[in-house]
Amino acid sequence: MSEILQRLTETLESRKGAAADSSYVAKLYAKGDDAILKKVIEEAGEVLLAAKDGDNAHLVYEVADLWFHTLVLLAHKGLSSDDILNELARREGVSGITEKASRK
Hints:
Layout: H1 2-14, H2 24-31, H3 33-53, H4 56-76, H5 81-91, H6 96-102
Helix pairs in contact: 3-4
């Protein structure tokens, strides 16, 4: 699975220098933070609606959209899925209550 994330990360990076009319991602990058954030919020809402509908195939589809747009946001900010995976690894085995208390 990490191979998919790696390939997607490479594709998202390659779109950074592309003309806005050459790809959907290049267009999002050109529009900047507000457009990207709006897509993440939109997709998060669609995930919630799909979850409430009880259609697992639709939920998977919408979560894939949310993950994709979140990866676009991360790439736009100079981050990648590796940064998230490293953070999840750091938290592994730590109680959620303990981890949340450590943020204060």
